[in-house]
Amino acid sequence: MDVPCVRVEQSEGEATRQVLVEVGVLDDEYAITGDDGWLYLPVTDTDAVPGELTVVTHDAPARRTPTTPADILGDDPSYERLGDVAIVDEDDPERAQEIARAIVDSDLPVETVVDRASEIQGELRVRDWTVLVGDDTETVHREYGHEFALDLDAVYFSPRLATERHRVVEQVQSGEHVFDMFAGVGPFAIPAAARGAEVVAVDLNETAVEYLRENARRNDVTDRLTAIHGDVRDVGDDYHDWADRIVMNLPHSAQEFLDTAVAVAGDDCVLHYYDIQHEDDRFGPGERAIRAAAEPEYEVTVEERHTVRSYAPHEYNVCLDVRLTRR
User: For the segment 197-235, what is each residue's pLDDT rounded down to a tens digit?
Assistant: First the structure.
């Protein structure tokens, strides 16, 4: 159908789209189309289009609205996406199956739907799953420009922590020595290496380390990342005084590894310490534990007290960003 469109070179398409959204004239009933190096962005009001933009008439197809699980169910179900796997958390098996069917019948690019069947358990930090649709719990998750292959049935991975991981990784400087004590498949380690850091990433889960090495290859950081399968307390013996930054993403148990972290820390080191505590004192227990482990050898400065998310009623997953400076 012939509709008024702003015509721009493809290289200017996204910037122009943002301008039209800000002005409030981008017509989302029709699709943006391209032809011979040009983009055509449908608009609702030609008089409101900024004067420096060119308006033409163009044959733009009606935009198809994707079908969502909510459209099928009539309500908005709760689920998470991890690559082409969807994760639900339902106590009612019939409701879980209903949601799973709606997800795969929608336009979401999902092949497998699983339901949480246990809490995280064991020293390898894995959980049981009930597969509702499909048969493959292996997937590739994309996060802030990086790819992570993983098998939900064999490793721990939480898509909910993407924003928190990005917050930490954005602090990494090229040339830093980063020690990831509980690395999993690499969601901290891979982006840190991509920023130019030299990374040592350790995990007790052998399968996770296999995926970590694969992900280093996928993201072209093998030359800056050393993946080690083993107990970080043993591995740390080979990296005394080495690290400029240490990631301790093991809530509930990180305190048990603080002596290793202090041994690995260099003269000036930032520690990202994850904890789960009651709302009445979210940061105190972690801060006291770090001071007990690091002082008086190090001056301890808390640079940020950050609440990551609610974990359970009255309990919070938190992070302490702490600088250790050798006296």
Answer: 999 999 999 999 999 999 999 999 999 999 999 999 999
pTM value is: 0.79
Give the domain CATH number at 173: 3.40.50.150
Same domain, 112 and 47: no
- Tell me the residue length of the chain: 327
SS (H, E, C) 29-66: CECCEEECCEEEEEECCHHHCCCCCEEEEEECCECCCC
Domain shared by 73 and 21, yes or no: no
> Residue 35, by phi and psi: left (phi above 0), alpha (psi -120 to 50) or beta?
beta
C-alpha 302/C-alpha 256 separation (Å) is 19
DSSP string, 192-216: HHHTT-EEEEEES-HHHHHHHHHHH
Residues 6+ apart with CB under 8 A from 92: none
CA 17 – CA 12 distance, rounded (Å): 9
- The total of structural domains in the chain comes to 3
How far is residue 76's CA from residue 221's CA, in Å, rounded to a whole number?
40
Contact in structure between 240 and 215 (CB atoms under 8 Å): no
The whole-angstrom separation of Cα 222 and Cα 224 is: 5
Q: Which two tokens stand for residue 221?
A: 């950081």
**8 Å CB contact between 3 and 46:** no
**Token pair for residue 47?**
């008089």
Answer whether 259's CB lies under 8 Å from 246's CB: no
Task: Say how far apart CA 231 and CA 181 lie, in whole Å.
Answer: 9
Identity of the amino acid at 52: E
- Bridge-based pairing of strands 85-88 and 112-116 is parallel
**157 pLDDT exceeds 80?**
yes
Tens digits of residue pLDDT in 18-36: 889 888 899 988 989 988 8
Encoded tokens for 156: 């721990």
Q: Which of 147, 127, 133, 126 is nearest to 212 (CA)?
A: 147
Q: Is residue 264 part of a domain?
A: yes
- Residue 47: which residues within 8 A CB-CB, separation 6 or more? none
